[in-house]
Amino acid sequence: MRTVGDCRKYNLRRKWVPSRDDHALVIRPSRIEDRKLMKRRYSTPEHALAEGQGGPSRLPPRPVGATMLYVASSHGFGLWLLLGLALAVGIYPSGRGNALVPLALGAVLVGPGLLAACAHAAWMPTWHGWRIGKSARPTRDALVALSTCLPVLAVAGLARGDNSFWVTRLAGAALALCSLASLILTAHGDAIRRVPSLDTRLATQLPLSRVVSAAFGGGLWLWMCAAGQDNAVSAGQQLNWIITLLAVTLLRGLIENLRWQSVLLRLPGPRPLLELQPRRFVAALLVYALPCAALLLASVRDVGPVLAAVAAVSCLTGMGIELSLYDGALAALPDDR
């Protein structure tokens, strides 16, 4: 049984039958046609997705300044990670200055990126994906990175002559966990933001590579702090630290090689030209050769903090070159969406 409303809808949508001489528009009542029109209106064309108009597009390569601040922040969190781990285990040397100097150095490495994002620098618009001051909520990466400041302040307040106090060790464990979580989340989130269609296998390799790289860079900075303080570590402890850093260097070289091979297999074009880039050799020289030479020299003779600082800065510069090359390789990957 039809109601009055149904009759009105039918009258509005009824078929108008024109005369033979009249070319009036024929309006056919069809819900299928309406659904097709709505689908065309709200759906995204495939060519728009391919051009980056309807879906999340890839970000352009980072500027040089943003790349260096990104790597410096990674080294800062790696420094805090190793410091917190040493405090939690109870093997870190006693002394308030021995703990405050690495904490301050980590803040110096992490802070400039946040300050540049707060100043809305054109070459550093976001910090961990967070566009500060643009009525945008902090991302998960930014929240975890900011939460790391709490255990940093706790360790700075609890550090005394003897670092074996259980509360200090608990604060060190919290510092290590927060730094590790920030490194993992930042690596994955940054890769997804830069290349939304990134392969799952490549995305899962990035956190491990970032953690090992941050541990290596942070270890060099921590070695510089220990070398600059009198009687901070004994000769045996220094030798163990050097051997550990050399082992981390070997592990990082293996992981980075596997990561590069995974990307090169997916890149179009001749593979030898992509592998034999001059900047890759320069980055390898700065990241591996110079720091390892400094570590080997420190194992046979007493070196000051200057050589350790040169090794840390060399590693920072080389990792910045590596990151710029890797970002370019990710941007050149074919879109599988």
UniProtKB/TrEMBL annotation:
Keywords: Membrane, Transmembrane, Transmembrane helix. The keyword Transmembrane applies. Signal peptide: none annotated. The chain crosses the membrane at residues 68-93, 99-122, 142-159, 165-187, 208-229, 241-260, 281-300, 306-333. This is Uncharacterized protein. The lineage of its organism: Bacteria, Pseudomonadati, Pseudomonadota, Gammaproteobacteria, Lysobacterales.
